Structure formats: C-alpha cells, structure tokens
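Researcher: Here's my situation. A collaborator sent me these components and asked whether they could plausibly form a single complex. I don't have experimental data yet, so a predicted model of the whole assembly would be a useful starting point for our discussion.
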Amino acid sequence: MAQEHAAPIHGEDEGTTTGLNHRKMLMWAFLGSDCMFFGSLIATYLVYQGKSLEGPLPIDVFDIPVTSISTFVLLMSSMSMVLAYSALTKNNMKGFRIWMISTAIMGATFIGFQVYEFSSFANHHVEIDCVSPGELTKYEQHIFDDGCSSGEAHAESHEGLKPQTNLFGTTFYTLTGFHGAHVTLGIVWLLSLLLLSFKKGVITPEKNLDVDLAALYWHFVDVVWIVIFTVVYLFGVFPGF
Amino acid sequence: MSTFPISIPRPVHPTGIWGWFTTIDHKRIGILYGVTAFIMFLSGGIEATLMRLQLAGPELDIVSAAVYNQLFTMHGTTMIFLAIMPLSAAFFNFIIPLQIGARDVAFPRLNAFSYWTFLAGALMLKLSWIGGATDAGWFGYAPLTSVAQNPGTGIDFWIISLQILGIASLAASFNFIVTIINMRAPGMTMMRLPLFTWMSFITAILLVLAFPVITVALIELTFDRYFMFNFFNVANGGSVVLWQHLFWVFGHPEVYILILPAMGIVSEVLPVFSKKPLFGYKTVVLAGAIIAFMGWMVWSHHMFTVGLGAVANAVFTVTTMLIAVPTGIKVFNWIGTIWGGSIRFNTPMLYSLGFIAMFLLGGISGVMHAVSAHDAQQQDTYFVPAHIHYVLFGGAIMAILSGIFYWFPKYSGKMFNERQGKISFWLIMIGQNVTFFPMHFVGLDGMPRRIYTYADNMGWNFWNGVATAGVFILIIGFLLVMDNIGRHWKNGEPAPADPWDARTLEWSIPSPPPEYNFEEIPIVRSLDDWWETKQGGAYKEVPASGGLGDEGHEIHLPQPSYWPIVTAVGLFIAAYGVVFNDLLIPWALAAVGLTIGFIGVYSWSLEPVNDPEEDSTH
C-alpha cells in the first residue's frame, strides 16, 4: 500500500485515522448487522421448535448424510476462497482464476443440494405397510392411525413439507432460504470479480481489496451455515442434543 | 464491457436541480434530509391535529373510526421513522464531518443513496393514504396485521416502506461508523470527539444492530401475508407474542436511537451558552454507551401485561429502573455544566433548557411505567401517549429545534431573528405542556388510547378540550419557527464564522462552509480544540500542509454521481411492484425495479472514482 506520490484525495482511498481501509471497516460493520439478521431468524426457529401442530417434522424429512455432503462442499469452498486470495497476492493470476471458479462451483453445488433438498421435502411422501409398520415417527404414526383403521393394506400421505404446512416448514424454509440467498449473492459476486480480473489493472496483487471483501463475506456465510447445520439439522434429528 | 455496466461520464459540476439530484456533498445531503424530514414532521403534525380535533369533545364526528385508526398509525410511524430519525440524520450529515475535521463522509455516494432511499420509503408510506393507509398502530401487533383482519394494501405499504427506510438507515449508519472511526483529523482521538459526534456514533452502532431484527419481523409478516406462512398464525400454532418480542427488541433500542442524538445536541449547546466546558465529559460519554448497552435489556417492559410471568416482569422492572441511572447522570452533568456559568439565554439555549425540563418529566413517568404492577394500570391508557410525547416531543423535538437554531448560522450562512426565536420557544414550551400534560390526567382516569371518541359522561371532556387547545398554541409556535428559518435563510444578516463563541471545529470555518470544508485539515490538540485555540492556550501555528498529504495540490473532491438516485428509484419501483404484485404480469413490476436497482449498484461500484479528465492532468 505504499503511496509514492501524494494521491489526490478522493473519498475512499485517502489516508485513514486507524490505517484500516474504509471499505473493510464497512464490511465488518455489515457482517455485524447480518449476525443480528440471522440471529433473529435462528431465534424464531428455536422459539417454534417442537411447536408444530402436525408433521412432517425434522426427523421425518432430514437426511443427515446428504446434508453433511453439501455442508462439506460449502466448507471446502471457504478453503478454495483462501487459496484464490493467496494466489492473487502472489501474482498467480491463473491460480487465482482457477480457485475463484472452483469456489463458485462449490457454492453452486451447495445451492444445487439445497434445491434438491427443498423439492424432496416439499414432495415428501410416506407409505406405510399396515401389517408390519415397523418403527414409526409421531407423524407416521398419525398417518398409520388415519389410514390403517379400516383394514387397508397401505396407508400413505403425499402432503409433504411446504412452508404453509406447519411451523417447522415456515421457519425452516425461511431460515435456510435466506442463507441460500446469501450464498447465491456470493456466487454472483465471485463471478463478477472473476470477469473483472480479465480487465487490465482492476484486480492486481496490490489491488486485492475487492477479493478480500468478497472472501470475508463468503467465510461469514459459511460460518452461519455451521450454526444452521448444528441447530436445525443435528439438534432436529438427534434428541440427545 | 462498454454497454454494461453503463459507463456514462460522471456529472462534472452540475448546477441547479441536477446539482441536487447528483450531489454527494454531505452538507447538501444534510440539508435535503432536514427539509424533507421537516415536511414529513408537518404531515405527521397535521395527522395529529385531526386526531385532536376529533377528540376535542365527546362523540364528535370529524373523522370516521376507520380514518382515525389510520391517523394514529400514520402519525406514530411518520414521527418516528420519517421525522425524528431523519432530522437527526440531517445533523449527522451536516455536522459530523465538520466536527471531526473531515472533508466529507467515508462513502459520499452511499450517503446520497441513503437520502434517496429514505425519500423513496417516505413517499411510499405517505402515498398509502391513497387507497387506505395502515391502521394497526405504529407497532403493528399481530394479528391485527394479518390478511384475515386487514386485507387491504395499507399494511403492505407500511411493511415495504419500513423495509426501504431500514435500508436507508443501515447504509447511513455503516457510513457514519466508518466516518467517525476512520476520518478524524490528526490528533482527534476518540476521547476528544465532540459529544454530538459521540452520541451519533453510539446511535449508528445501535441502528446497525437493531434494524435487522425488525427487518426479520417484517419479512416474517410479509411471508404470512403474501404466502400464507404460519409465523403469526395461531391456528397453526404460531404465536402473536413473537411479533411483540421481535418488534420491541428492535423498538426499545430504537427509543435510544431517537433520543441519543438529541442528548448529543444538548451537550453541545449547553457548554457554549454557559461558557464552560461540559461537566464530566467522560462520564457523559460513558453514560451514553451504558444507555445504549442497557437499551437491549429492557424491551419486555412494553409487554408487562402480556402475561410473561412474575419473574420476567420483575427482571424487566429492575433493568428498566437501572437504565434511569445513566440517564440521570447525564441530567446532573448538564445541570453541572450550566451551574455557575455565564449563561446567555439565546434561542438554542432556551430550547436545550426546555429539553432538560421536559425530558426529565418524561423520564419520571417512564420510571412509573417501569414498575410492572403500576404499569398494569397505565397500559393502553392515555398515560402512555403522555409519557412518549414528553420524551419524544419534549425531549427529541426540543433538542432538534435547539440544533436547528444553534447550527442555523452554519448551514444557512445567515442569522435568524433572536426575538422571534424566543417567542416561538415560549409558545412551543407552553403549547406542548397544555397539549400533553392533560393526557396524564385522562390516562389515569382510564381513558384508553386509540379510541376515536368517548361518551359524554366519562369525565374526560374538560382535559381533552384543553389538550386540543394546546395544539393551536403549538401550531402558532411552529409557524413562527418556519417563518424565522425560511425568511432569514433567504434574507437574513450574513453570519460570522463563529457567532456563538463556540467550542468545536465546525465553527472554525466560514459560514456556510466551503464545499471542501477545511482548507487545511486541522490538527487537534485537546478537547474543545477550537475554544482552546481561541484562548491562545494550546494554540500552535498550524503547519502549512495538512495531515493528509495534499500539499501542492488543489483540493480534490469526489465527483457527483447519478447512480445512488438510480438505485433508489429502482428500489421504489420494486417496492410498488411488491405491493401490487398481481398487476398485469405477476411480479413483473418488482422485477423491473430490482433490475434497475441492480444496474444502479453495478454501475456505481464500477464507476471511476474521479472523472477521467481531471485524472489526466496528473
């Protein structure tokens, strides 16, 4: 950040009191604000946990192995983001672009998983053998009671989990949906930076702040997911938590 | 890359109306904020006047019950979000960079965006009078806001305009946090910041943390209304109390967002007109920080009658009483400041003294509310509006009026008429007490708030008549204020740089300040540096070059920009598109608006910082 000759004063680049960059400070303030945003959504989720009047409930729809994979992919994207920034500061533009693309792809993969998850939850359907139902959840027991009372062989329900279905659907789709929107915005941001890097002199080893800020945002969104994965998915399925 | 982002050259020295549309000068934006917010304040005042006329006597029929509901809801929302907050923002904009010795804010274009977005939200809310405004009260309790109870578009307008106003407030707060931390002149340490800047800083932090909570609450309400979600749907197990918690977790910090800037203004005015430094500067700063911190622990005192249980009520009673302590500390410090000073009773000083007296009364009725058992008697009676008007009118508005007169020479470059200012003070002082004090009486007599009329035999006739009469004293007072400001802004005597013999940096530069504020960035050596400089004590010759390496160059300021207003217009269109989402093609209007906003943000972020012509000379 050496400034050889006195640069003209123009708002965002001038010398600062603390030596920290204005935009970086703004980013931190924004992330603080976003913490309260997700905090409120998570609080709403927790307040309504276990208050749904009918199913399906987390235990009925969650597939922890699948979500673990998408969680792993998202966490790896953070590492790839670090590598992208590191490559940029070492003036390795090719490496920078490769890691930026892979970060975006991993983000998109996560979103793909989320789309799959949302649609499979919404179309969640249950079929129960009335003769040997096996171990049933509360929701399945309800379907069993309803459908097997008059001697049928099978009981089934195609209701699925929609945001309107119950409090779990309402709070789950809102919380994870806003997280997904954050990731999507991040992907757009990363791809924009990637495109810009082909323009001369816009993103260079010295002018890396734009990438730095995008990385901060990306890592933040990842950290939020860790909280959501723990609170919503793991707490929802393992009663011991 | 030539077509998108749209790369049209930045406007260079636009004049006239274009100059105002594209300005990113914090002083002009401050004036825009101030004028807009004052107009909004008047509109909220008209709404209040209509309500008072309706209540002047029993069983009057000036407005219908339905219109009355809209009036009190719009009055509350207007005064809080469109009047007091942006009036404070007007001072943030105009004063903070001058007080910390900066040439602009950290993000000038973001600042312009804040203003235009605020205007979009304000217009949107006010235009909802066409077709029926919101009528669920300014804190919009569920389930009054549900589609079943309230199928019209009034609530939708209220939700979306609050979201837009939230974007404006958040953008402004990020900007001021960075500005205050990062753009102080050399030597301006945090503990040398003028009190107004300190309180604004704390306010900005509160806003950044509090606004997301109401954003989430409003998103949940939106989803309930538009997509039949279950957040506040009791039939599916939802809880209407959740709305109250979310609203007041935002709402109580919001109270301090309204009052802390006012306290900052008063802490500037009192020392200047007492010719004494602020008594206990560090204590006043710390008290402000403690108020902001504790403001997060008291929200349920708005919900004492909900039935949260004895323990919750007891805890919130105690925390609420505790928060009166730092507030009391401030009051004692203000009294300590004027104690033994050589006091000049100019108009700004009168308003500040009025603030102390009125805010104290509001504070005392606030402590009465803090006792949860006592509060159960006052809940939803006129005692509550009495309290809120003592703290927000007697408190915030009096301090803002003090600021309007105190800094008038600085922002207009003219002097106002002192005699007229004093008369307006006394009219407003008397008027507000005649209007709001009787509300204590009818409140304790059991008159509920938010009723559009009352029976003849309730014993509320006399004091309601008195309260309505008070409104007309207030109206005359404000007409005098407007006449004083408007007339002298145009034709007043030119103001000297430092008419009040003041203490802070904004008075060390000409009135009105040049576009670049400081010819040389000042070097600060003490608290109240300008005062010390004038006394010759710590004064040393300021070196020929400022601290920011501008020697040998002319002062470069960022160019105006089109994109902030374009982005705000995009948001405005999108907001209408959300309310009228089934117009022609569903959601098309919202998509158009968002696209405009998106183009605006993109073009903005890729806009060259300085205009190319000027750069080429280097």
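Model: Some features of this prediction you could bring to your collaborator: DSSP finds seven helices and two strands in chain A. The first strand of chain A starts at residue 126 and ends at 129.
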